[in-house]
Automatic annotation (TrEMBL):
Listed name of the protein: DUF4988 domain-containing protein
Record domain DUF4988: where: 28-198
The species this protein was found in: Alistipes communis
Pfam family, one: DUF4988
InterPro entries: DUF4988, Ig-like_fold
Transmembrane segments: none
Superkingdom of origin organism: Bacteria
Length: 818
């Protein structure tokens, strides 16, 4: 770089030579000054580049980082421990948006190590830097020395740097930014460095000594007579031997309890503010950390806004370009931050008006279209960092809905969302109805982008179970016309008090849903949380009353990841959670209703096995009332819950029926595997046999009053890890069973009393009322779980002696079956 000064000296000589005549040398002098300034800046940048390279080499060669902070200029100040045990400090400048790649950088080779490399085309291609012996130069050793020769070309360790064609590289653009990003990963305890060329490396963080408080830097003290209690934590390698005390105190009285690790601070009488500096010292390391206190309160009240933009917990906007105001009352200063994920469409409006106490902030949301119907969401935060006070407000914008569809019906996800909102608001659905007054799908609809869903029609439980307070249930005809609604991957929080009914439809009443395919492979409804209410969920509907469901195929699984409290009925099913006086399926196979989705739970608290337990079924979890019928239904999904009642078609067959008007399941088939403790909550112990009732068709029934199961087939295996009452048809049966066939393997350990089987498997039922099973064909296999679980196909074949587990000889009549 010193050779560059020769250029300046030569130019100065020209000025002296020409200075004796009338030549105006002003412009030349200005040019010389500019050249000198540019050369000085270039020299500084090259010097800085060498410093960055030295820093990179030192960091790569360090043991761990003990300190990482940003200074006032945004540079990172980093203290590290080298392998010799010495603590050193470097300061790194970073640049997120790297426009010019530095001439030298580091890249990872196939051996996983970083080596020095150069670029002559702004990062498009790179060449490894080689030493005099032609070997690659590892980062962490002695870094190469960068410079610029007298002719303006790059030199490395005294030799000109060349491109891949062997040409010298002109130093026409000098970037000294080697580092793009420095990030701390709290979980892994690593600092990740991203270099300008995108390559990364990590170094562990290991503090020798630090002290942290469970309070914000500034604490508001509303009552001077009451001390403020602040807990502290000492961390780092020297933490166990650390001495903690207060270093200085102003306008406060301080007490430190080293056993409870608590700092008690009392603001002096009449003091408006005060502070204390806490010191922690150990092993030659000392940390000083201040705490500040102000008299009075510090608050940011929840924001308010015009109710036309929603009255819930978030601002709800339509898809049109919308300007709205948010009013915030506070007695401290605060920052307003729009979340990064919504900054492209949600912006501060030009006018923000300040009043004496309340400030009105104006925002604007851009026009929004989305055929999927998915809302876009963001948030606005009002915060005061010193006091540690933050108030966050959610903002949600729905897409614009076209005023006049070209053809009446639902053609997009946005149409479906608009239809759901209309039903839930008690509004008209005319715009989606055909000439016959039926709501129709016009094509397949993919809801993958729609990660949240409000069920169509809502209701709250008024009994166990009953839903006599439905809110705007769907009451019309919904014709899918053979099309599919897919991309259903929703999570419902059962703690939601708005509704206890979950599914595509929450509640339908006096309605018809037909000719619809629901979901695709991988689609799932997840139920999270815990509710003390009676929750009902189905992929199609949570609750159906006086309705008809025909020619529907479901591919959506229903999975409970939350809990079911003890003695609290919960109903989960592939089609409808709970039905009352409703028909599922039709009079022919053309009207068949098919479930392909799994219905499963994890561990649950509830241990009841009846009407207050967990009820799950492939088609329906719980039936209520006279006039209920399942006809030509098929379940192919896996069904499992550790307790309660579970069946391939229905969990509990019950409700208020009469001799004239009963409940019937007919012409239906289960192909799915039915299990209880598949997840191992009870370790497969038969001591818990009374927690469950389970069958290939139905889990359990109430007392028979015109309950019938007719001409149905179970092809699925039914496995009880708990040894509950388990049947190919019904686990615990009081219904009339006629003309049914079992072909599945039924396994459960047997519990005896006085030498007689009480709980366990039967190819027909675990338990059945006297001679209720007639005209049925024995089939499949029956055995104990512990004996045949590893090879179910080796279990004994069905016989007249294992039709029922409980009192087979008394309650099963072989002459009435075959």
């Amino acid at each position: 770089m010193r050779k560059f000064s020769n250029i300046i000296s030569l130019a100065a000589c020209f000025v002296l030579l020409w200075g004796c005549d009338e030549y105006d040398d002003g412009e030349l002098r200005q040019n010389i000054d500019a050249i000198e300034q540019e050369l000085t800046e270039t020299e500084k940048r090259v010097e800085r580049l060498n410093e960055e390279m030295n820093s990179l080499s030192a960091l790569i060669n360090s043991s761990f980082i003990s300190y990482l902070k940003q200074d006032d200029e945004g540079n990172y100040v980093i203290s590290y421990r080298d392998h010799g045990g010495e603590t050193k400090t470097v300061t790194l400048a970073t640049q997120d948006d790297v426009v010019t790649a530095p001439i030298v950088g580091a890249g990872e080779f196939t051996d996983g190590k970083l080596y020095w490399r150069t670029t002559a085309d702004n990062g498009k291609t790179y060449q490894w830097l080689l030493d005099k012996e032609g070997k690659m130069m590892p980062v962490g050793g002695v870094p190469p020395a960068m410079d610029i020769d007298a002719e303006g070309f790059w030199i490395v360790d005294g030799q000109r740097l060349t491109d891949k064609e062997g040409n010298p590289i002109l130093a026409n653009d000098v970037s000294n930014t080697l580092f793009q990003k420095v990030e701390t990963d709290e979980e892994s305890g690593m600092v990740r460095f991203t270099l300008a060329d995108g390559s990364t490396f990590e170094i562990p963080v290991f503090e020798a000594l630090s002290i942290r408080f469970d309070a914000a830097p500034v604490t508001a003290v509303p009552d001077r007579s009451i001390p403020v209690e602040i807990e502290y934590t000492v961390a780092g390698s020297e933490a166990e031997t650390a001495y903690v005390d207060y270093f200085t105190a102003w306008n406060v009285t301080v007490k430190i309890d080293k056993y409870t690790r608590t700092i008690s601070v009392k603001l002096d009488e009449n003091a408006e503010e005060g502070n204390v500096v806490v010191i922690a010292s150990a092993g030659g390391n000392t940390v000083l950390k201040p705490l500040f206190f102000t008299y009075g309160t510090a608050q940011i009240d929840p924001p308010t806004w015009d109710p036309q933009f929603g009255t819930g917990a978030e601002v709800a906007l339509e898809g049109e370009f919308t300007e709205f105001d948010i009013r915030v009352s506070a007695n401290i200063d605060y920052e307003v931050t729009i979340a990064e994920e919504c900054q492209s469409w949600l912006k501060p409006a030009p006018k923000t008006r300040a009043e004496t106490v309340t400030t009105t902030h104006s925002f604007v949301a851009d026009y929004y279209e989305n055929d999927s119907g998915a809302d876009r969401k963001g948030s606005i935060t009002f915060s005061n960092r010193p006091y540690g006070i933050t108030v966050t407000l959610g903002v949600r914008q729905s897409p614009v809905v076209p005023d006049t569809p070209t053809e009446p019906g639902i053609a997009t996800g946005a149409d479906l969302v608009a239809f759901a909102k209309a039903v839930n608001a008690g509004g008209s659905t005319d715009r989606w109805e055909n000439a016959s007054g039926e709501v129709v799908l016009l094509n397949d609809i993919d809801l993958t982008e729609l990660t949240e869903w409000t069920p169509i029609g809502q209701g709250k439980a008024t009994g166990s179970p009953s839903y006599n307070t439905l809110t705007n249930p769907f009451t019309g005809v919904f014709d899918g016309q053979g099309f599919t609604i897919k991309g259903i991957r929703w999570t419902f929080n059962v703690e939601n008090e708005t509704t206890h009914l979950h599914g595509l439809f929450g509640a339908i009443k006096d309605a018809t849903i037909k000719n619809l395919k629901l979901g695709a492979a991988g689609d799932q409804i997840t139920l999270a949380g815990t509710s003390q209410n009676v929750v009902s969920a189905g992929a199609l509907a949570g609750y159906a009353e006086g309705s008809t469901i025909v020619n529907v195929t479901n591919n959506v699984s229903v999975i409970l990841t939350g809990d079911n409290p003890d003695a609290t009925l919960m109903m989960l099913a592939g089609i409808a959670g709970c039905i009352k006086s409703t028909t599922i399926g039709g009079e022919t196979k053309d009207d068949a209703v098919i479930n392909n989705g799994d219905v499963k739970t994890g561990r649950i608290t509830n241990t009841a096995n009846g009407g207050t337990g967990m009820n799950i079924g492939g088609i329906c979890a719980f039936t209520l009332g006279a006039g209920t019928k399942l006809n030509y239904c098929t379940n192919n999904g896996e069904i499992s819950a550790p307790t309660g009642r579970g069946g391939g078609l229905v969990g509990t067959l019950g409700g208020s029926t009469t001799e004239e008007n009963g409940t019937v399941i007919a012409n239906s088939t289960n192909n799915g595997t039915i299990q209880d403790d598949a997840i191992g909550q009870y370790g497969g112990s038969k001591d818990y046999y009374n927690y469950k009732r389970m069958g290939g068709l139905v889990g359990g029934t109430v007392t028979n009053n015109n309950l019938r199961i007719e001409y149905c087939t179970n092809n699925g295996n039914v496995f009880s890890q708990l040894g509950c009452r388990t049947g190919g048809f019904v686990g615990h049966n009081q219904a009339t069973i006629v003309g049914c066939v079992n072909k599945g393997t039924i396994l459960a350990n047997i519990t005896y009393a006085s030498g007689e089987p009480q709980h366990g498997p039967g190819w027909a039922c675990g338990y059945s009322g006297k001679k209720l099973v007639t005209q049925c064909a024995k089939g499949g296999r029956v055995g104990e779980w512990d004996t045949y679980k590893d090879n179910p196909g080796s279990a004994p074949e069905a016989t007249n002696d294992n039709a029922l587990c409980y009192k087979n000889g008394d309650y099963f009549d072989p002459s009435q079956n075959y």
